[in-house]
Structures are given as structure tokens and as C-alpha cells.
Design a protein that fits this description.
- By secondary structure, the protein is mainly beta.
- The chain has one domain.
- Helix content is 9%, strand content 30%.
- The chain has a seven-stranded mixed sheet with strand order 3-2-1-4-7-8-9, with helices on one face.
- The chain is globular, with a radius of gyration of 18 Å.
- The relative contact order is 0.17.
Length: 138
């Protein structure tokens, strides 16, 4: 008697999404990277006026690091978001996220979304192709 072979079901993993300089403003992006100033007791988010405790209660996680050396493996992130801050510059808080770091952590074929909440600010979507970011049609 022949045995039937079963095909293993492929379980599709949800995309790994990271919001650089994030304050929990993107509901579908639960990993927010930010600088250590958000740990100060009187810190509140600039967009919604919430404390880090409140944002964490809503299911968001925070990774505290500088922007020059993001603590993510190379080619590990499916989608990277940056909302309402400049790239490759310096503010009173220090350096902002670097394009080179975004390229390093983003998987090939991954998406980089700039200004996801502000269509008026020029929401831009890029895909990582052959080690570079290529702008996609909006």
C-alpha cells in the first residue's frame, strides 16, 4: 500500500517592521528605535503627547540606540519607516538616522518608507535592489 506524502504547510512570517526615531505613531509598526532621551521621566511623544509607558502599554517596543550604529543584523528588516525627520543630518539630540544604516539593515527587496504619516510632506517609498534604494511610484 502506498503512503500519501503530505506537503508541509508553509507558514508565512509577518514582516519585520522598524520605525527609526519612532514614538509609537505607526500602529502596525511595533518596534520603535529611538535615542536615550525618551527614557527621561518627563518625556512625551511629540505627535500624540503620550509617555513611553503609555505607548508600551499599547503594544509597542522600544530599542534604545544611537542612529549611527543601529542594533539590528544586516539584511534582517523587511520594512523601515522614518516619520517626519531628516536623514543624514544632526539635530540638538545628535545625528539622525543614516541612509547607510537603513541600507545595511534592510533585506534585499525590502521597503523603506519616508514620511508615512504625512502625504503632504511627500511620502516616498523605496525598495532595496542590488544594494541601493530605488524609488517606487507613489
Amino acid at each position: 500500500m502506498r503512503q500519501k506524502t503530505r506537503k508541509a504547510k508553509t507558514v508565512k512570517k509577518p514582516p519585520i517592521r522598524v520605525n527609526l526615531a519612532g514614538e509609537g505613531e505607526l500602529p502596525d509598526v511595533k518596534i520603535n528605535q529611538n535615542l536615550k532621551h525618551i527614557l527621561e521621566p518627563d518625556w512625551i511623544s511629540s505627535r500624540y503627547g503620550k509617555s513611553i509607558t503609555k505607548i508600551q502599554e499599547e503594544g509597542h517596543q522600544f530599542v534604545i540606540s544611537d542612529n549611527l550604529h543601529l542594533p539590528f543584523r544586516s539584511n534582517a528588516i523587511d520594512e523601515v519607516y522614518v516619520a517626519s525627520i531628516s536623514l543624514d543630518s544632526v539635530t540638538f539630540l545628535g545625528p539622525t538616522p543614516r541612509t547607510s544604516e537603513i541600507l545595511r539593515i534592510l533585506k534585499t527587496g525590502g521597503l523603506f518608507i519616508l514620511n508615512p504619516l504625512d502625504p503632504g510632506a511627500g511620502r516616498k517609498v523605496y525598495r532595496k535592489v542590488q544594494g541601493t534604494l530605488r524609488r517606487m511610484q507613489s
